[in-house]
Fold this sequence. Notes:
By secondary structure, the protein is an alpha/beta fold. It is built from 12 helices and 14 strands. 35% of the residues lie in helices and 19% in strands.
Amino acid sequence: MRILFLAPLRANTGNSTTAARIRSHLEAAGHECELRDAAGVQSPLEAAKLISQRTFDAGLAIHMYKAGRFLLANRIPFGVIFGGTDVNEDVKNEEKCRVMGAVLDEARFAVAFTYKMKEAAAKHWPQAISKIHIQPQGIRTTPNVAFDFEAFLHHAGMMHSPENTQIFLLICGLRRVKDPLYLVEAFSEWHEREPRVCLAIIGPMVDPLFTNEVKAKLQNIDGVHLIEEIPQADLQALIKSSFAVVNSSLSEGMSAAILEAMDLEVPVLARDIPGNAAIMRHGDTGLLFTNPKHIFKKENLASYRGTTCQHIRTVQRF
């Protein structure tokens, strides 16, 4: 079978990582799968021409609005995978919600990573509930064994020795829904008391305007460092060397960064939102917080580091 696979493919983001993994498994199953960046498609008509020229048999899309809408009214059957922001954020826009409803109506099936995500989708499109299937994400980590953690610290301006530095790592593309500024003042106050503690915000600069806002804010903040994206294998090595991974998102589908941290047995501190609560057990596989200052209590920190954060049962290892 020849499959046209559309997804948002901004480098080093969760959607692009997920799309690459799915494509590899489809190809391993004997299918031909052409993965295309949905950002490069302008309309369903352009997708129709591509389908006709390449004689695709079926379509697949990650994110109902950013990708799924381009498969509407085309001659091939298709399925969609919820991206997270489509179900959690884009539904707040009336026109986007209408378009995504049409996508779900026409799709042969839809995939939600968690029950919470299926529940959220069913609230807006109850007629589609029977075609929404729950399939948790899989994860595979291959950290770069040659990664130089000390050189990374010096390059990033965190000059303490690796043995004395406690890095809390926030992995996100810089956009408002990830809300990285939620934690910076609390971390700055903690860094003032404990200079070895640092927050490193790392990831692609997706939203230029918001990136400038973050940079301006951090000019007057100590103990918080903004770092450009690095290759995935290096990032996983950095996760492994960090004290903990934190997540401050306003909404998540299923955070690949959290899953990777768990796979690498690194503690996770995450904002208490449905997408995070669906894959974490508070006090067992990490900490869910509603107030940034709660994560800095000494009794909590002792329990984090004592937690093994083993790979959670709902995640399917490849």
